[in-house]
Design brief:
The chain is α/β, with parallel strands linked by helices. Helices cover 33% and strands 24% of the residues. The N and C termini lie far apart (40 Å).
Length: 230
């Protein structure tokens, strides 16, 4: 599905990996998580990534749209008059699997459809980005910190959608939230100082010996939750 072959830069070093199923990218702030996402999606030009067997140069514009979508951590809308409804309508790249009203209801945005995107709170903006990813419905969706601005109730809403087989085809989620990653149970790619320090199953990553290797005594699993060891 997705292959990275020996990519290096000033931030990332000797990155090689194959992603064939839902995956979480973890790492400390500044470790290179978002940079890796931009390399994968082609925002940072390179010939090291293959998506569905083709490099970015080999993919047609239509194939790029169908194969991969990157959802950033912050909503940026430069049209000061664009409404929530208009933003979602523009997100439908392929044959729709949901209507705008269905997506708005799913993310609790129904009352905001006529609102200007630039008037939304940070949490509402985050949910709108999530809704747009379902509208796009690419083969691979990369979501960069999808819960960073959300309260607990909205985080649970996003978790349920990512945890469901009914929404999005293949998911790559960048997060710093260990408990969120633990509960999702996706494969883990852990980046440390620009290098892949771990790539394997969630079960392997959250073994006590692995957790202590990467986090020392700062985190622990208590009653099926990952918590800070304060």
């Amino acid at each position: 599905m997705l292959h990275v072959n020996n990519y290096s830069s000033s931030i990332l070093h000797d990155i090689s990996l194959d992603i064939t199923q839902n995956t979480i990218i973890l790492g400390a702030n500044g470790s290179g998580k978002s940079t890796l996402a931009k390399v994968i999606v082609g925002i940072i030009p390179n010939n090291n990534v293959q998506i569905m067997g083709k490099t970015h140069e080999q993919l047609s514009a239509k194939e790029k749209i169908q194969y991969i979508n990157y959802i950033p951590s912050k909503l940026e809308v430069f049209d000061e008059y664009m409404s929530v409804q208009e933003f979602l309508e523009l997100s439908f790249i392929q044959t729709p699997t949901h209507t705008v009203k269905e997506l708005a209801k799913l993310f609790g945005l129904s009352s905001l459809l006529e609102h200007n995107c630039q008037t939304l709170s940070s949490g509402e903006s985050q949910l709108l980005l999530m809704a747009s990813s379902l509208a796009h419905n690419a083969a691979i969706t990369i979501l960069d910190e999808p819960t960073s601005n959300l309260d607990q109730k909205k985080t649970k809403r996003v978790f349920d959608i990512l945890n469901s087989h009914n929404y999005l085809k293949h998911k790559i989620v960048i997060t710093h939230d260990l408990n969120f990653a633990f509960k999702l149970g996706f494969d883990i790619v852990f980046i440390k100082k620009g290098k892949i320090a771990f790539h394997g199953s969630s079960g392997e990553f959250f073994e006590p010996i692995t957790m202590e290797k990467f986090f020392g005594k700062s985190v622990k699993i208590v009653e099926n939750f990952v918590v800070s060891n304060l």
